[in-house]
Design brief:
The protein is an all-alpha fold. The chain is 80% helix and 0% strand.
């Protein structure tokens, strides 16, 4: 299964072929892949596309999931209960069992639940985009590491070739040195023979 990674339509197989193919072409394609930047901050990318209603839904869901909301809500319910007792008002507008309060709470819940679900759907979408973004980052890291491995292997291979050449040069220098020494010894012998002939 060759899954497309989304960058220039390359698949994992294509990337493997890039890494194995000619060095110049491979380098160029790797740099092309790495230059194709994905948005690293998904929140900023998605916030550009949000409508006013979606932004309001996110704010409402954020507020509904906070301690501030719980405290305000509890204060409102307690105030409602206290105001609608016979101790405060002679004729309360919503006497016990607080039917109107139940209606208000049911309306709030019926509006709040879908709004929170819309916000959660957007969070799920953000999570999917984050996962895709992380996959691309990991893929790029894999490509970079593979490329570095190839370059290091190439450097090691060149180093071994240079070491072999150096050993050959050293052995040639040793052979030349021996030839030079032997040549000098022969020259000295020949010179010594010529001198002995001259003196004789």
């Amino acid at each position: 299964m060759n899954k497309t990674i989304g960058v220039k339509g390359l698949t994992k197989k294509d990337i493997a072929e890039i890494l194995i193919s000619d060095e110049d072409e491979r380098e160029q394609k790797i740099h092309e892949l790495l230059k194709d930047r994905r948005s690293l901050n998904i929140n900023i990318e998605l916030s550009k596309r949000l409508t006013a209603g979606q932004k309001a839904a996110d704010k409402m869901a954020e507020f509904a999931g906070s301690w501030k909301f719980i405290i305000v809500f509890m204060a409102l319910v307690l105030t409602w209960g206290i105001v609608n007792t016979k101790w405060v008002l002679e004729r309360p507008f919503d006497p016990y069992p607080y039917v109107f309060l139940n209606l208000v709470l049911a309306c709030i819940a019926s509006i709040q639940a879908p709004v929170i679900m819309m916000s959660q759907n957007r969070e799920a979408q953000k999570d999917r985009l984050r996962a895709e973004n992380e996959y691309l980052i990991n893929m790029k890291s894999e490509i970079i590491l593979e490329d570095l491995h190839l370059k290091i292997d190439n450097i090691i291979q060149r180093q071994r070739l240079l070491e072999d050449e150096l050993e050959n040069i050293i052995s040639l220098m040793g052979a030349l040195r021996q030839e030079i020494v032997l040549g000098r010894e022969k020259d000295e012998e020949n010179t010594g023979r010529e001198e002995s002939r001259i003196y004789n």
